[in-house]
Write a structure and sequence with these properties.
Blueprint lengths: L4 H4 L2 E2 L13 H13 L11 E9 L2 E10 L4 E8 L7 E5 L4 E4 L5 E3 L2 H18 L13 E4 L15 E8 L5 E7 L5 E6 L7 E11 L2 E11 L6 E10 L20 E5 L1 E4 L6 E10 L3 E7 L7 E2 L1 H6 L4 E8 L4 E14 L2 E9 L17 E3 L2 H4 L4 E3 L4 E4 L16 E5 L1 E3 L2 E8 L2 E7 L7 E3 L1 H6 L6 H6 L3 E6 L5 E8 L2 E4 L2 E4 L2 E5 L10 E3 L9 E5 L4 E5 L12 E3 L9 E3 L14 E4 L5 H4 L7 E5 L2 E2 L19 E7 L5 E7 L3
Parallel strand pairs: 1-20, 18-23, 29-36, 30-35, 34-39
Antiparallel strand pairs: 2-3, 2-14, 3-4, 4-5, 5-6, 6-7, 8-9, 9-10, 10-11, 11-12, 12-13, 13-14, 15-25, 16-17, 17-18, 17-21, 19-23, 20-21, 21-22, 24-25, 24-37, 26-38, 27-28, 28-29, 28-33, 30-36, 31-32, 32-35, 33-34, 37-38, 40-41, 42-43, 42-44, 44-45
Length: 655
Amino acid sequence: MVFSGSLLLALWSTTPSLMQVEVDLSHLERQLALHASSLGDSEALRGEPLKLVGTLDASGRAFRVVVHVRREPFGYRREVTPLDGSGPSEVTVSNGRHAWRESADASFSFLAEADARICLEQAFLDGFLYLDPGTIRGLPQNPQSYTLPDHPGLPDPFERQVRTECLGLLTPAGTMQQFHFDVEDARLHEAVCVDLPPAPQWTRFGGWRRFGPFHLPALRAYGSVGANTVHLFRLESFETGVFLPPEAFSGFPAATTPRIQRAGSLRVAPDVIAGSAHVLLPEVHVNTVHVISAILDTGADRSGLEPSLAAVLRLSPRGPFAFEGMTSTFQSFGAWIDRLDVGDRPAFQTVVTCPMLPALGQLAADRQPAMVFGGDELFSDSPVLDLQNGEILFRGRPATALGELDARGAVVQVPLQRENSGWSVEIRVEGRPLRVLVDTGSAPVLRLGPRGLGKLGLPTRADDWLARGAAPVKIVGVGGKSSQSLVVSFDSLDLGPMHYLAPLVHLTGLFDEALPADGMLGFGAFLPFTRVGLCFERGELELECGDDLVRTESGEYEIPGSGPFLGLVLSSPPLAAVNGRLLFPAVLEVPPGTPAARAGIQAGNLLRSLDGISCAGREMCSINRRLWLRKGQSVTVEIIDAQSRVKTLRLSQEQ
């Protein structure tokens, strides 16, 4: 793996999806191109494996250091041996995302916390210095002219009072490094890790000289801001084209797991709005001890953890991360997790973001998800969502086609395309094409923003949709800011040969900040299928049709609409009794013009029963489907009003 965009993206957004924000990197790319030219024969660095040999003086001891760096696939191997023979060599290895130690008996173990961070940062730094720096991607952090400080204990050979331009890049360890380039010749003088307490740690480069056709720093000094202790590394030799056998970079110490693995359970949580649902992973383990529930989110380029939980677990901070979400733009720090398990499937050495997650009204307060699960931990093994049996399966690489896995019905493949902000698919909205993100973190069948509406030739003003009968509902995005969205029924939606009739579509960003994407195909679009495969390896969305989906003579699968939005916005009550009494779901909002509003239901009322079934102490996700009415259907509700009176009302589409 080359150090490219997949490792260094510093901006993410959520819906609760955590999507990458598109930024202008032209300034950074120009600076990196200048830096590449400062190395001399930069073409000779492209694709060639490298070997670096030098000595390290640290705390009065001397070590021989041998580093091998391989570009494709990326590999980093560092051997450190005491020159006085006082101990064995320490060998650390990295694939650019994970870091582990090779023991003398050829066994392997993951590095943890600070050791993992140091290995990943060192691998990143050597990759940055020597492996085609023009391929690096990142986010400039307030580029500015800066004079390097004169660190205490810095030896004489290093230049001082150099004018530099400071840029920031996010490393695979989730830490922010500030890079200081010479304003005149673009040489790299210093890298500073600004995230780590108690003081930032710096690496100063100096003694630039020729190593064959290359112009490289022969000296590196390491220290902490304000401290007098400085470690010094002297580069003695630098070679290209030094190939090591593949096993020198292997030994990834993950537990052996089958290529096709049934990892754990899957839970579908229907929303009160017809056709909308979240999909949850109820058995996620953080560092092997803490069990939480997570939203499965294909729109997330990185997993996210509730900040209060990160604090309780005392996870090491990372970041910062900037977010552009559905309802606001904000900043959040991240956290380092040594191990993350979904059921029986482990993922190791993960950097997660820590944004405030919104509450899901269909779930009780004590059952709210504390995590968004996505990014490489989800994408790498092409998951299958078995909605019929309630489990998630991972296929590894190469991914077996869904139709070859105990096929239960016809499987349709729809092409997926990788975008800067996630994976996209082409749909047709009332016959007009549009490319949207596949985002299971979004509950509706489809969510459209002003940009997507404009491409479809549809109104982009909220007043126009309200005049057409759209129902306004309040949404709360990641970060805690609330906003207004509109719910409206469209005539049709097509996803490949799947023809959705009268889907309820959410229009977001018409009142305030615009949705940062044309649209999002949410988890509601997948509810009609028995299994859904997300084969990111081959770029395929696989949809398995059950017996209830019949193919028409035209070759389409017709999916009936889930019914109208009745206008009840509800919150689940506590599941445990309070003072010996079970509580009822509360009506939070009743949009005007909806059947619930016309029936006289008001915010603050309590929902006592649905079709004679008591709602006391029940999560709304267990009964929400009773509010998904098709044409000609109705539901009988019992409401407790503000005067504690019980009213029996019938709600229907025709009301």
